[in-house]
Predict the 3D structure of the following.
Amino acid sequence: MGIFPRGLAQFRVYICNEFAYNKKERNKRYMCLDATETPVLYSTGTRLAYTIANRYYGGKHFVWCTTKFHSRTQPPTSDPQSIARTYFEHAIKGDQHSHAITDNIAGILRGAEAKRKEGVISCEEYDIVHQMLNLAEYKVFLPVLFIIDTKAVQGRCVKVTEENRASKDSIEYQIPDLSEGEYQIIEFDKFLNDIIPEPYDGIVKVLNSDDS
């Protein structure tokens, strides 16, 4: 029998420890939100990404989100208000050097490629998405805001690892399949234009407010 029984016992201990550790780590990532303390989450995207997901991905949206619309302690690249302001200003001014818009296009392409590989969309639909991006006007990169029901997504909301967050202290989560009924959407230009006669100056003023 040699050392096999001892080795098997050690292997069992190792597997049990690894399982317990992985379960603990998974719970830390998936069960870190209290819906009572944080009833809603916020995520800013673009009108184009929102339209594509609704039309081709069965209304399933991959979103990065956080617990406040704006916080002075949140880095600008993960702060929904700052992201919305950037998209709005770059879109209405037609900024050809906009990294935000370029990154959004790249993200939409990665998402479309992933959906094609998963069989969610066909090659023909992937080509359509690609063509939509090639022909996109700046206005389709205007921001949309997801206001998300935390309770509805609590079991699927993943805490972003430190190496992938905007900063060590940044509060960031991912939801891979946000669905209809789990959020409300605000299209900033449509929503605010009903209130503010001047179409753009007033909106930029609201997005530039510094309320925490």
